[in-house]
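Support reply, case 0932

Customer input (verbatim):
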Amino acid sequence: MALGRAVVLGAAEVGAASKGIRPGDHALVPGFSWAGYTQHMMSYRRQSVMKPGVAAPGMAARLGSTVDERRGVEYRELKSRDLLNRLNGSPMPFGWTVNPYRGCEMACRYCYARYTHDFLGLNDPRAFERTIYVKDAERGRLIAEFRRARRSEQVIALGTATDPYQPAEGRFEVTRRVLEAAREVPGLSLSITTKSTLVARDAELLRQIGASSEVAVNLSVTTADPALARRLEPRAPRPDLRFAAMHALAEAGVASRLFIMPILPLLTDDEPNLRALLVAARDAGAVGAESNVLFLRPGTRETFFEFLATDFPRLVPEYSRLYAGSAYAPPERAREIEERVRRLADDVGLATRRRAERPDQRAPRQLNLTW
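Our regenerated output:
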């Protein structure tokens, strides 16, 4: 079975959010122009040159056949040449991305990457979590790509658009093969972001990588309330299980940090929840925490508001006000939330920073795991 990779399209949004870019700001990211237009205009431009239900030029030939079906999810192969994607001129805290899967079964209501399935001709937002594309991880090619990335001295980020340890990984093990190749190339800087407890499976492998490279795992947990987590992230493991995975990584000597991303105003931004998350991370051995307030780009916005209307209808008017004409909450509201996180982190004795405080990777630099 020949599986492959398509160009990662979601990472651009991470970069924009990480620098606090708002409509009217100017920033260039691969495949996008942010000069003087809102994200809505950007979406309009993209849709104007794409036909609904038709894969973007160059993508159709990469779409492979179905390789498995289970739990109401179809897995298909995605062919391409490379798995590592280099970001040029991007204001992001990493220089390379690896997304072993396209689409994500976690089904997070707020996921910004849903729009990427449009480029595959799949315009139903639910297709993002029901049709998962599996990419190739040929060992020799991966080792060569990692060697090339190492020369840049930039961070390689796994899981910038989709979770590398989503349920598909238990069947296909693409992420594990990526990490096995990384083990053969000392001197890398790796950052892995996941909501999955499956990452604990690779604790020993990550420890081995850490013997000659820098590696950190970012466990994303938005709420300590398992009932709310099930509504926000239907197929992600319970929060307590994610902290158990964090503890397992710490026991193996693998640096891990808490990602409170995104923080959802009026849902997860209250002091008791944030404190509970920070305490749990500290007790699980996390080296720090990082946070960012909800970012609602077109494609995600519609899905998220549909979810609110069903599960939290009383919040629809306030969210409509907060995100009126913008993908971002008002700066003063975001600052208030981020300051709350910082104060609580200080109280519990855990290092913290906002996503915007990460160093960008336009100039080569090493990942600092201690901050």
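We compared this against your earlier run and they match. Two observations from our side: The domain at 11-262 is CATH 3.80.30 (pyruvate-formate lyase- activating enzyme). Confidence is low (pLDDT under 50) at residues 1-48, 361-371. Please reopen the case if you see a mismatch on your end.
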